[in-house]
Amino acid sequence: MIRMASKVTKTKTPTGVELPHAVALLIGDTTPANVAKPSAFAMADIATSGGFGETWAALAGDQLFIVDMNGNTPELRATDLTGERKVEVTIIEGVGSSRFRVIVDGHLQEELRFSCRQARRFSRFQHRVEDRIKGRNTVDSDGTPVVAPDEDKVCNTCERAIPDWTDNCPHCLHQRKIIVRLMSYVLRHKRLFYIGMGAAVLGAMLMAVPPFLTKYLIDDVLASDAAHTDWLWPLIGILGAVIAARVYCEYLRLNRLAMLGEQVAHDLRAEAFNHLRKLSLAYFTRKPTGQLVNRITHDSDRLWDFIAFGLVNVTISSLMIVIIAVVLLAHDPILALLTFTPVPVGIVLMYLHTRRMRPMLQRIWAKWGKMTSVLSDVLPGMRVVKAFTQEDREVHRFTSSSKAVLDDTEDLHGEWTRFWPKITLLLNLGTLIVWSYAGPRIIGGEFEVGEFVMFLSYIWMFYGPIEELGVMNRVFQRAATSAQRIFDILDTPPTVFTKSNPVARPSIEGRVRFEDVSFTYDGVKRVLQDVSFEVEPGEMIGLAGPSGGGKTTLVNLICRFYDPIDGRVFIDGIDVRDMNLHELRSQIGVVLQEPYLFAGTVAQNIAYGNHEADMDRIIEAARAANAHDFIVGFPDGYDTIVGERGQTLSGGERQRLSIARAILNNPRVLILDEATSSVDSKTEMKIQEAIDRLVEGRTTFAIAHRLSTLRKADRLLILKKGKLAECGTHEELIAADGVYAELHRTQAELAAVMAV
Amino acid sequence: MTTQTVESDKKEQKKDQPHRTIAQAGNLRLWRDARGHLAALDTSIENDKPIEEVRIARCFPWSQRDRYVSVRDGEGREIILLPTLDEVDDATRALIEEELTAQEFAPRVTAILEVEDGFDLTVWHVNTDRGPFEVHVKHTEDVRQMEDGSIIIKDHAGGKFAVDNPIALDLNSQRLIEERLA
Ligand SMILES: Nc1ncnc2c1ncn2[C@@H]1O[C@H](COP(=O)(O)OP(=O)(O)OP(=O)(O)O)[C@@H](O)[C@H]1O
Ligand SMILES: [Mg+2]
To answer: How many domains does chain A have?
Structure first.
């Protein structure tokens, strides 16, 4: 929140975060000094023309001011809120553009248009204005900020507050270049790294020795006028030893660095998954599963490639280039400089190549992600695909997404395969230049043959690494994109997290209170609006109302799967945002609308929230859920494997297992979302029995469409279009003759028809 | 145990209108009432009681903008579905169009000036047909290519900024967008 604000002020167009001085002055001129400061304001960012604009609405004292900044001179209009005339303020939600209306005595007086960006502020503003109309005075206008700056944890480098969900300063992490960041993972395994790198450097140095020995062999031992023929065997011996040492170094390098690569890939995978766990549900509804899977598996594997081979090759190659350059210069400066001529051209080529490669890699990655999303979308839905005989269509969908990858790789491979021969050609030109310079001089006797052969070997040792750097460039580019993808996960802040210094509540009583709670999933449509109620510990609440009314959303907020955008949720009088998430959720039992089981045995699934539970308790829970009998009926009993998502079970069986899971957890607050929706009436009765047993003494929220299942409820909350429409006992609501009575009548009629 | 039937909703229930439909597009008449809301009448019924707080919605806001417009009552129930606007009378059509323009805001991006990467937020400085704007993109996948080739940049607050024809943009814009397409 805080960081965002600072970011916003940096931009040029008005953001609505701060009331401009000019506007405040205008308002100040017309109001008495004691109310000169507006207590609430909002900015409408769409002008009547339909373009971006700037019109302010501000509340100061009893006046609602509208300041239109779109013309050449600001225009100020005021409406008296507490005077004779009746003032209403409403917001008409639209698609991307909502309208704030001021209606005076039934006549439209002002209409301001604003985009999604301002929606939240306007909703707040409307509340403030309404409070004022009703004569309520609200001093604490904003409630507590969601993200309170943490005073003890401040980044040493940039002195920003470090958010609670991480130990590292995300800002600084982000500032660091990908490679530096990757290196910090590499350096966690110092032993592997140093041995591998040491062996690599040693091996590279040893590589420079043989040409040197060869020179002696040719010029001093083998030549017709050689003075040291007796050096032959010792020299061969040394050569052999050097080769052996080099081979061993090679082994050490490959082995240690390959392992290092795997270690880093593992660390990143584990860290990414651990971070995913912290991310809020909203993240997962938005991200295609396939993409996430891709990032964690495929991308971490690419990093292995780079760390095992790329890293060392880049280092060694650069090292080699410098060493050999020095050696060449020392031997013959002119020849050396001739050797270097192709290098600048090569560098330019490489730079251009990199620039072209990067977007291509990005694009391929995106297409690849789409392809995996098709898979993860279709495979779990195979039943539907078959039922609607859409196999051909899905095959086509997959093939075309795979083809899209193919098409893009064509560009990519075209690019680097064209780049590659260019480099080879360039380097060969280099040797031609050297030959044409040295050839005549050898014939003329200025140059010794051995000397030149050595020189030639060094030249190839010089060009080799340059070629290598070209290859590595590609590996490096791929790795950098992959690392970026993983860091992208690690850098995503969770929106729901435990703040530091949470209020400890190891055992809650189960008093639940909603205070003016509003919520939206997408920032546009309000799914809950100003919902307030209070539930006593142990009370059973039935939640009913039309489909899409916000029932599931409401219980999601109790579990704190999401945080409300406005208002607060309290448990035992503590704002859930102040509680420890783990502590909170472990005391809330949920049976979801779509029960989800994991691949594993029946027993493991029942004990999912409670791994230490012994067999007795598992059986006890299954009994209570009326699941014991059917489980024992399976040939493998409690050891039956249920398959991914519990596919091998029937809908009712899945529901009973998830009830057993909730029972075993022994929660203080129980949430049943349509727990009996997919079963026959006899099973429903059994589940109902199980539930009746379960709700005893716990605060329970039961959602049901079949109102008969809510007969035990102490009170009913009826949610309609995100608003709490009614609240009371069955009898009271029937007497009130509202939404509930209507629902009840239709169901009774339906039941009568069915009975005939 | 407390009973509170929420006050404002009691009001709402009283004025709860029964669900009505209008069969013929030609019989639909709209006007704007004093409060600024749309109201509808069925001209085939004499002395018809108006339907209040009428809302207009497009069925295919992105793929079929100009077809299938739904006219709905305050409860979100459809009064009539208009496959095209050809058959309604001129005044009504003008009102429908006015209302749709007022509730929609989907600027078209004409150029991308600069993209600032920051932690947590990427700021896209763009020019649109409605003026310059800074789009705040929170997640990489919020910049997306649609099936028809257009690109949608989603603001973290929910606003959508469309690039109808990316190839028609200047080269710098194209490069910026291509590098960040998810
Ligand atoms: N993850 C989501 N993202 C965006 N919108 C959502 C999401 N989940 C639900 N909605 C929307 O929020 C509204 C309320 O949904 P909710 O699931 O709370 O309804 P419900 O009362 O539980 O309905 P039902 O009785 O059918 O289960 C619906 O209009 C739905 O379209
Ligand atoms: Mg639901």
So the answer is: 4
